[in-house]
Specification:
CATH superfamily of the largest domain: von Willebrand factor, type A domain
Radius of gyration: 28 Å
Strand content: 15-25%
Helix content: 25-40%
Protein name: VWFA domain-containing protein
InterPro entries: DNA_bd_Ku70/Ku80, Ku_N, SPOC-like_C_dom_sf, VWF_A, vWFA_dom_sf
Largest sheet: 6 strands, mixed
Keywords: ATP-binding, DNA damage, DNA recombination, DNA repair, DNA-binding, Helicase, Hydrolase, Nucleotide-binding, Nucleus
CATH topology of the largest domain: Rossmann fold
Low-confidence stretches: none
CATH architecture of the largest domain: 3-Layer(aba) Sandwich
Subcellular location: Nucleus
Number of helices: 7
Distance between the termini: 30 Å
Shape: extended
Number of domains: 2
Pfam families: Ku (PF02735), Ku_N (PF03731)
Number of strands: 13
Length: 324
């Protein structure tokens, strides 16, 4: 049986870069700066966890209008879904606020849904997601398509994650939200509730992104007999729950098209030594103990697959947290 392939999610990063996100908060940080940090962390997390997910990038509030639906100030920066890479990180880091204060974030959401609908056809994505970063401080052009958006999100089973302003309880006495922003938050909150999505502020989002996601996959079964004493053998199957995560390895590439040839040379001082004359040695205190290949073979630990009960202990001697 072939191994199960990695889950591959199509993710649209929908980021507001209009004029309202340029305003700084009490900490001297603008909403756009926080959006950069959060979106960059998402991409970095995927790169270092070796995820198979692929990303597209859309800007709301751009000076450019580049989308199939011709909605103003919506720019599809990265149309094709691509694996997380450094070019995508650079595009996020190079984001700058514009002087546009009339971009419709609902239009951006519609464009994102449309992109997922058409650009994922024929591709083996296991799920679809929109990650939206906006402070919802712009007036909507129209709410006519609201119900259609909700219905399409449900029908396509698109996961919606909204990262927006902090809740009113987390704001200082000097910080207030405009009437437009409050109405926008109520509206996006309704959409999130309808589609069973997630909505949070930057503080909560960044705390979650501080931890790299473990690899999600199916462990191979481990079959053996559970031995109780000398006469009882019970067939059991085990699965590995935790395993060390190997770091990604660097690949050697040549700027030119000529192949890279690796050579290993053994030196004793300045004199080259043949590989056949080299054996491993291990430090024991200040003494180097040579170990040949034959020595390793003769000292190799031989084991066999088994699962044995070798004793019993009281329940209070086994903390429950080690079983979780």
């Amino acid at each position: 049986m072939s191994r199960q392939s990695k889950p591959m999610e199509a993710v649209v990063l929908l980021i507001d870069i209009g004029e309202p996100v340029s305003h700084e908060d009490k900490d001297g940080q603008s909403f756009l700066l926080k959006s950069k940090q959060c979106a960059s962390r998402i991409i970095q997390r995927k790169i270092f966890s070796d995820a198979a997910d692929q990303f597209s990038l859309i800007f709301v509030g751009s000076n450019k209008t580049e989308n199939d639906m011709d909605y103003p100030h919506i720019e599809v920066k990265q149309r094709w879904f691509v694996p997380p890479n450094w070019d995508l990180l650079r595009a996020i880091e190079n984001m700058k606020t514009t002087d546009v204060n009339s971009a419709d974030w609902l239009d951006g959401l519609i464009v994102a849904v449309n992109l997922l609908k058409h650009e994922t056809e024929g591709r083996k994505f296991t799920s679809q997601k929109i990650v939206m970063l906006s402070n919802f401080a712009t007036r909507l052009r129209s709410k006519d398509h609201l119900e259609d958006v909700i219905a399409t999100l449900k029908e396509m089973k698109i996961k919606l994650v909204v990262i927006g302003p902090e809740s009113d309880d987390d704001l200082s006495s000097e910080e207030t939200k405009s009437n437009i922003q409050q109405k926008g938050e109520v509206l996006i909150g309704r959409i999130v509730d309808e589609v069973d999505g997630v909505m949070c502020g930057f503080a909560e989002a960044m705390s979650q992104l501080d931890h790299f996601q473990k690899f999600i996959g199916r462990a191979a079964p481990w079959h053996c007999d559970l031995e109780i004493g000398e006469d009882i053998f019970i067939p059991v199957t085990g699965y590995k729950k935790f395993a060390p995560k190997k770091l990604l390895t660097w690949k050697k590439k040549s700027i030119e098209k000529t192949p890279i040839i690796q050579e290993t040379v053994f030196l004793q001082g300045d004199e080259e030594v043949e590989k056949a004359e080299v054996i491993n040695g291990y430090l024991f205190g200040q003494t180097v103990v040579p170990i040949s290949g034959d020595d390793k073979t003769s000292m190799a630990l031989t084991t066999q697959k088994c699962c044995q009960i070798i004793g019993f202990t009281k329940k209070q001697n086994v903390p429950r947290h080690i079983l979780v």
